[in-house]
Amino acid sequence: LILSNSFLESIVQETFRIKPPVPFINRKVINRKFLFGTKELSIDDELGVCILLLNQQADVWSRPFDFMADRFLERKFSPFEFAPFGGGARKCIGSELATMELKMLIGLCLSCLNLDLIEESSPSLKVMQITVGPKKPIYVTFKKKN
After folding, report:
1. Are strands 125-128 and 113-117 parallel, antiparallel or unpaired?
2. Three-state SS letters, the chain
3. The pLDDT of residue 76 is above 80
């Protein structure tokens, strides 16, 4: 199995879209009040952005609950459509490292190992400070490819 870097990147991006590492972020108004839609926000007001819902908008994502890595090969999404690590000046400083690590892990596993899930059900998630992770370990069996 040979994966191109762009297809591997699209697999990682689609994974982050469906299971964002940080599903919700807060921001505080600090400089001046402003209009957000029809709501006026004042200094010290807080605004929450649900990245999980951002990544499921039906007007942006066709079949938003399906894993379709090809969508990231077909177009580039704006930070207002896809922001798995937040955005702007407060974007996660480790986002590029996390993306590279996941690409390396997936590429290594797919090229060297045959993996099988022991439990077929989708894992339940828990909040771990600001990130999310599985409530319990995900067990797999693996065998080295010949």
Report:
1. unpaired
2. CCCCHHHHHHHHHHHHHHCCCCCEEEEECCCCCEEECCEEECCCCEEEEEHHHHCCCCCCCCCCCCCCCCHHHHCCCCCCCCCECECHHHCCCCHHHHHHHHHHHHHHHHHHEEEEECCCCCCCEEEECCEEEECCCCCEEEEECC
3. yes
CB within 8 Å of 101: residues ≥ 6 apart: none
Residue 11 CA to residue 52 CA, distance in Å, equals 17
CB 25 within 8 A of CB 51: yes
pLDDT in tens, 116-144: 888 877 778 887 777 788 888 888 898 99
At residue 67 the predicted structure's pLDDT band, cuts being 50, 70 and 90, is very high
> By CB neighbour count within 10 A (0-12 exposed, 13-18 middle, 19+ buried), where does 98 fall?
middle
Beta strands at 131-134 and 125-128: parallel, antiparallel or unpaired: antiparallel
Position 2 scores a pLDDT of 59
